[in-house]
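Box S2. Input/output pair 1.
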Amino acid sequence: MALNIDQDHARFRDIVKGRIRQNLRKYISHGELLGRQGKDTVSIPVPQIDIPQFRFGDKQSGGVGQGKGDQGDPLDGGQEGDANGKGKAGQQEGQHALEVEVTLDDLALILGEELQLPRIEPKGQSKIASDKDKYTGIRRTGPESLRHFKRTFREALKRQIASGTYSASKPIIVPVREDKRFKSWNTAVQPVANAVIVYMMDVSGSMGDEQKEIVRIESFWLDTWLRSQYKGIESVYIIHDAAAREVDRETFFHTRESGGTMISSAYKLCADIIQKRYPADEWNVYPFHFSDGDNWSVDDTLQCINILRDRVLPSSNMFCYGQVESPYGSGQFVKDLREHLGKDERVVTSEIRDKDAIVDSIKAFLGKGR
């Protein structure tokens, strides 16, 4: 019975993952997963799912292809309604969405498969290390929880054959204390590839709630994928208008200012944080900047280019700029980035016109596997 339950559960999980794949673009663009996120799982609403199985009717009740009816008649006789939706109001409940918990690792796997994202190769060798126990040997003493049953059985068999107590007609093997063997372990020091994501967002008056929602949705999926690629990861949040400051996640997504925009202020703060807290020889660094493309002046834009080229890019795996379309933004900044840094493989830009464009933006940012 337990085996059947495990098999049914495995089939159910496969069906759920298939439904998520089919509707992945809808889940991403609508952002309906964000309010259901836990620490390691997320609840996903999927249509009611039944495990396929045969259902047997009562004897003498007939079946499909038997009884009265003409070609084209509905199988249920059309008593409660017809194909055009006309008929009496029913008394039964309709189908409801079923919420299924999926781990963030599974969600990242589905995202990677559907968008064909390459695995990330961390740059350099991290100096940060962690201890990991590996069971590499066998010894004669140890706790029962670590007993090696195959080796214990082998030792008991060898002893009984050597002593002449083994009977081929009654092959009963009874280990004694001297036969028992236990797994032994060694503690190995392994390097851990750590990463930091630096999120920067323009919160000036031209960035409205709709633009911030797009950033919030996209950052969830960027987080999900990058966390599946690294053992340890940290996030830094920077907001800016004419000045920049580091904030927590909640403030990042719910702050709105009314001032002008000086993008260089965010890039300066980003470079300072990387230099002080996340040296490039120990961390894989991913700065993401979201804006509507407005900047204070041409001079400030040139300053941004210089900061990126001289301070941010040398320390980063890649730098990603997402330009969220706004009725109040000029959209000029992405053109300037492409003009000055377009040939640098570490610079990735994306224009996000609406929520439906989030999928393509994620693909653009993560598709290089850097």
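Box S3. Input/output pair 2.
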Amino acid sequence: MPKILLNELKPGMKLARPVLNEADMVLLGEDTELTEAVIEKLKTLDVYAVYVKGVSKPDIPREEALLELDKRFEKVEHEPYMDMLKRVLKEHIEGLYG
């Protein structure tokens, strides 16, 4: 049950974990079936990814994915916002592997 980015969600998917806001209040409960309207609402709430049931893990090993991320950012890490972007992508990769 990896984390899936909002732009990859499809209607009919079900949440594997509750979606919480910054104050840890439940926005959507586990097993909620996603609709177009729910996906659009999540986008307005600054939710960038959710855990979805039934999604398989990536084909490449986690370590390889993280090394590729490091390689892609090694020349631009000193630029504004690149460290933040890399951190978000690393969190996403970590979430893909549960």
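Caption for Box S3: The two ends are 6 Å apart (CA to CA). Residues 62-96 form one domain.
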